[in-house]
Amino acid sequence: LPDELTRREWIFQVAYPIHNFGNQLPLMLTTAYGEVSAAENLKLLDLHFPRAYVESFNGPKFGIQGVRDLLGVHDRPLLMSIIKPPMGLTPQESAAELYKSVLGGADAVKDDELLVSHPWSTFTERVSQHRQAAQAVYEEGGHKCLYFVNITDRPDRLVENAYRAVEAGASALMVNYLTVGISALSMLADDPNINLPIMAHLNFSGAIYASPWSGVSSHLVLGKLPRLAGADVVVYPNPYGKFPLQRSKYLRIAQALTSPMYDLPPIWPAPGGGVHPGMVPILFDELGV
Prior knowledge:
The protein is 42% helix and 11% strand. The chain contains 13 helices and nine strands.
């Protein structure tokens, strides 16, 4: 018989006591989907956490409301832009692009995921130059802006990078949380000396969620887990851009970021990847934050 007539598909649920792994993500994920992840055709579809587990995490410092309060914008969706080209601009050149973006209405501007510190642009110098550009726009028209500077590095250098960014006058941070490690995101969010919104960038997520038969569901990778770890904003694909993501998954991710999760505040869904001005009304209408 053909495979499609003999293959069986099952969904099963397994419960574990939370004292098996405590208030951490690495051992929880190892318990739920560790060695078995190497098995063929076995996908982690969802994780349901009891209140006691969720309340053991500090979660996001800002969330949707906190970011709105920083910007003084409470009655409309926020618009974020990314400076292009992603590589090669000096801090002065990228600051000039930030100035134009904010003058055009951007509420936030982010680094590219490939950009941290390079011979032509260090993240501390970008923070300094971009802060001056954002201040210039504010003084001209009263429009505030957050600049999410990419501080991605090895975990042992990540907090030091955050401290250096804070010292240079950063207004927000970005980290490639899946390549650094999701607990490194928790480490940043839990630090009382890092009182800035944190953006979690999606890169490498497709290697984890894209297969329909293995890996981890996208609404976990890009939704529940970074929210639990303390992200305030998560950048993720949308079905209208350059990445193939089903519309139902894109909406499920947004739901995981914003729906009630005990006392964790809702955080910002930030669909990206090939977004152009024509898509903005659709995204605003569908996400409604």
